[in-house]
Amino acid sequence: MNLKITCSIIFMLFSLFSWAQPTFKPGQDPKPESKKWVAVNYLSDEFEGQIPDLEKWQIEPIGNDWVWDGRPPALFKAENVKVKSGKLQVTVGKLDEVLEKNGKIFTHQGGIVRSIKPGNVGMYFECKMKANATVMSSTFWLMTKYDCYKKLETDIQECVGRTTELTHSWAQGWDSIFHSNAIHRPTECVEKLQLQDAVKLAVPNHQKFYVYAAWWKSPHEIQFFLDGEYQYSINPKVEWDMPAFIHMAIETYDWNPIPAEGGLVESGTHEQRTTLYEWVRTWKLE
């Protein structure tokens, strides 16, 4: 066995050992005593390669039954998604030219990453993420595929990197927040139903890495954790039982618009314009 292969095996074993269990502070692990957490490899990634693992992640906005390519004015573009220095990086910026697509006007760009395979009830999802420092979002969430009667979105974390005087009053402080949603998405068959909760953070989301997590405990309860500590639960009003895909979307919101002069979305450094994911890890109980 040559040295390169030997080093690869040692590194792989070290990586597996170093995250043998989810991130919990003492006394915070909610698992039953008779169970243990087992890693779900196809929904986990340490981002140690040179490019995104396309067997696990979809970085093209359109495809595999997904049709959303961004909320104007920011278009999702696969070229903005990189793996570098042991992290998944999604960088925002201004488009080279204004683009009209399907009747929508795009002036800026972000990106979206979706898991190829879905997670299910009972799984624990966590990521270590540092938000970008712009008015655009940094997120970690789950979404089911289209069903007219049940399209379910679980936002484990949704924040922005910066607010301004243009930010809607209710969203002031969303640059220092752990915020979660359970949304029964509206379709031609059903109306929207949204439940949410949040806690304020002492350090803004873009200044440090936080571990954001949720245990999809049952079709009736989702528990949310910050840095391994329980924060709150959301109890959906319908059965939360559809297979759901991990999403990481860096997008624009009309309630936190890009300033006319462009702000850090245009003038910021690469670091300021980039959301970093150090890892994504998913677990199931056995």
Kindly provide the name of the CATH class. Answer: Mainly Beta
* Spans of at least 5 consecutive residues with low confidence: 4-17
| Biggest β-sheet strands, sense, barrel | 9 strands, mixed
Mean pLDDT: 94
Task: Give the % helix.
Answer: under 10%
Shape: globular
Compute the CA-based radius of gyration: 19 Å
- Number of helices, where a helix is a run of at least 4 consecutive DSSP H or I residues: 2
In the CATH scheme, what's the topology name? Jelly Rolls
Integer count of domains: 1
Give me the count of strands.
17
Oligomer: single chain
The SSE order reads HEEEEEEEEEEEEEEEEHE
CATH architecture assignment: Sandwich
Distance N terminus to C terminus? Answer: 35 Å
The fraction of residues in strands falls at 35-45%
Structural class: mainly beta
Keywords:
single chain, 286 residues, mainly beta, Jelly Rolls, 9-stranded mixed sheet, 8-stranded antiparallel sheet, 2 helices, globular
